[in-house]
Amino acid sequence: MIKVGIVGGTGYTGVELLRLLSQHPQVKITAITSRKEAGMPVSDMYPSLRGRVDLAFTTPDEARLNECDVVFFATPHGVAMAQARELLADGVKIIDLAADFRLKDTAEFERWYGMPHSCPDLLAEAVYGLPELHREAIRKARIVGNPGCYPTSVQLGFAPLLKTPGLVDAAHLIANCASGVSGAGRKAEVHTLLAEASDNFKAYGVKGHRHGPEINQQLRVIAGVAPGSAAVHCVFVPHLIPAIRGIHSTLYARLTPSGQQADLQALFEAHYRDEPFVDVMPAGSAPETRSVRASNFVRIAVHKPAPDLAMVLVVEDNLTKGASGQAVQCMNLMCGLDETTGLLQVPVLP
Ligand SMILES: NC(=O)C1=CN([C@@H]2O[C@H](COP(=O)(O)OP(=O)(O)OC[C@H]3O[C@@H](n4cnc5c(N)ncnc54)[C@H](OP(=O)(O)O)[C@@H]3O)[C@@H](O)[C@H]2O)C=CC1
Ligand SMILES: CC(=O)N[C@@H](CCC(=O)OP(=O)(O)O)C(=O)O
């Protein structure tokens, strides 16, 4: 059995990790931390886990994380990088759900996250945890930077277009994305109050959102151009929807004259034919967020609303494929298991 520790077990991604890992046939959860709730049985806080998780929260200092095989950080930015070196020295594999190991440029990291990076050498070693694009590197990784929720949907939607050279004008991509409020975490904030977030729809972060540089860094990797190259650029606009879980991304790319001849439906179906978690919907479809709720699946539909325009619709659950499910998918790869182990739950309806 793989001994797993979770730092930050009271948050939404933490409890989603508990839900998935408590059903995983190869995992024993040995440590789960909270500074504020230390001593409280997990199932007192989350009765959904009664009979499934028989542990109490402990402080990170008491958690004996160095005895784990894998430690997940479901914590705010900056926590994982402070503890990574010591855990790696003890042979522990690390998966960070925050952004400490995502942005490769430390100046960009400092600009967007407001803190200097404390271990650039480990950042250079870390693998970006999107299995559909970096599967072989994840298998060998000691540290994985799990992708942001929005960047997961944007990369999976654009990848088939960018991997085919000369198909689209990659310098002028657009990603309009909308998320449910659980994306903001469990901490109390005015903008996620029921009276603020329900019966409302708004864009936010329009002057710049920290997922913009992550999206652009990774789209350049996908397209095979140099870091910072103007040949690939995406405008990213996040929106808040009055839902709890779910991300819906609408992506646009101008087709080049030769790209206009391509059969986009066939391209997407071929690209994702062997991917267990990516479902390319039939032509003409419009996937909805509830079709992936509480599951690790992503559903994608590709359209051509004008002769020179590709439009891609992507849905994912921000807490599952957008965070904790993806992290478990990475753990499976890092531990030599079948990638889908413990992750094939059917989405919840209605
Ligand atoms: N929500 C989402 O959809 C997604 C979130 N993420 C990222 O995942 C991470 C966790 O998100 P989420 O679960 O939403 O966050 P929450 O705010 O819901 O939970 C944060 C957790 O971290 C713990 N924590 C906070 N500060 C520290 C610290 N200094 N040391 C140790 N533990 C700490 C908290 O418990 P306590 O304070 O009691 O210790 C709590 O359990 C974030 O970095 C977020 O950006 C990524 C993708 C999607
Ligand atoms: C709805 C909502 O507020 N979503 C979050 C993104 C959640 C996420 O992926 O977070 P990290 O990249 O910080 O890990 C936001 O826009 O800040």
UniProtKB/TrEMBL annotation:
A GO MF label: NAD binding
Main subcellular localisation: cytoplasm
Keyword Heme: no
Domain Semialdehyde dehydrogenase NAD-binding: from-to ranges: 3-141
InterPro entries for the chain: AGPR (IPR050085), AGPR_AS (IPR023013), AGPR_dimerisation_dom (IPR058924), AGPR_type-1 (IPR000706), NAD(P)-bd_dom_sf (IPR036291), Semialdehyde_DH_NAD-bd (IPR000534)
Catalytic activity: N-acetyl-L-glutamate 5-semialdehyde + phosphate + NADP(+) = N-acetyl-L-glutamyl 5-phosphate + NADPH + H(+)
Record's subcellular location: Cytoplasm
Alphabetical keyword list: Amino-acid biosynthesis, Arginine biosynthesis, Cytoplasm, NADP, Oxidoreductase
EC number: 1.2.1.38
Gene Ontology terms describing biological process: L-arginine biosynthetic process
Active-site residues (renumbered): 149
Coiled coil, from the record: none
Record pathway: Amino-acid biosynthesis; L-arginine biosynthesis; N(2)-acetyl-L-ornithine from L-glutamate: step 3/4
GO cellular component: cytoplasm
Family: Belongs to the NAGSA dehydrogenase family. Type 1 subfamily.
HAMAP family membership: ArgC_type1
Function according to Swiss-Prot or TrEMBL: Catalyzes the NADPH-dependent reduction of N-acetyl-5-glutamyl phosphate to yield N-acetyl-L-glutamate 5-semialdehyde.
The name this protein goes by in its record: N-acetyl-gamma-glutamyl-phosphate reductase
UniProt source species: Caldimonas caldifontis
